[in-house]
Amino acid sequence: MKFSMTTNTPAWLTVAKTTPSKIKPAPFGTPCSNQIRIENHAIDINQVDGKMQHDALFPLIHPTILGEDLAGEVIQHGPHVTRFMKGNRFATKREEENQFQEYTVLHVDMTAGFLAVWLMRAQRRCRWACLLLLEVFSARIFFHLELPTEPARKPTGKTLLVWGGPSSVRSNAIQLAIAGGYEVITSASPKNFEYCM
């Protein structure tokens, strides 16, 4: 099925605690000042999305569109946008929802901070960048790490112990910590030694 650039087709949650979502057209609109329109190439469905749909975890105004994590390409930008141009690719995690659609309008100041730029350099493909967002943000928030830089920071003299390094969130925490200047010590089974080196 092909869609024109003047239509957008999201997955609407029309009332609380219902499945499946309804696929219905939505206005395409135009990005305002300091906004960009993204063509979504990959959208991550994480655990909170299921809870929001099935259990109404938080109150929502219906109809609504769920989804937080995406990777895609800028197709249009509003006035005063200089950081992003048409064709730029990146990944982002948006605390507001509305990602389960073909096109998403994002505020520039909430879109690609250090992490999104760093992540897309590390992961060339949109689908992998999108899937890693939840793990990377979880690692950054829950381990209270210094912000990573590129190139990596000089050693800070701080050490981080990560128990069970090969897991998804923990292996992302290790990469963030190294880029943030930490010395990292981790545990792993013999079959994962090389992976954690």
UniProtKB/TrEMBL annotation:
Entry keyword set: Oxidoreductase
A Pfam family that the UniProt record links to this protein: ADH_N
Alcohol dehydrogenase-like N-terminal domain span: 34-91
GO molecular function: oxidoreductase activity, acting on NAD(P)H
SUPFAM superfamilies: GroES-like, NAD(P)-binding Rossmann-fold domains
Family named by the database record: Belongs to the zinc-containing alcohol dehydrogenase family.
Name of this chain's protein: Zinc-binding alcohol dehydrogenase domain-containing protein cipB
UniProt source species: Lachnellula suecica
Lineage: Eukaryota, Fungi, Dikarya, Ascomycota, Pezizomycotina
Gene name for this UniProt entry: cipB_0
